[in-house]
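Please go through the protein record below and explain what the tokens say about the fold. Record follows.
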Amino acid sequence: MKTKMPEILSFISEEAVSRKMISEEIAVHFGYDKHHFSRKFKEINGFSVAEFLSSLKVEKAIFELDEEKRILDLQETSDFENSGSFTNTFKKYTGSSPREYKTEMKE
């Protein structure tokens, strides 16, 4: 699996997020059992599939913040379940809430 990791990461970045795939679907796509896939993914990368997907969603939100989109719209288009989940995950990866981040960008 280690040799396939660049392909797996690329697939997740380019396809899985836009298709709203979950870890199990990604594992099946590459022919792995979901438990084995999740365990090896974290062992190789140091972060879980879910953490990687969340970081990609936050990156997408940051990019769209640059485009002057409203924060509420970002939460909806970034595929987070609710505003609390979006705000908490955003803050985990950036150190700021979406509103704080947007304000800091304007300064």
About this structure: The radius of gyration is 15 Å. Residues 54-106 form one domain.
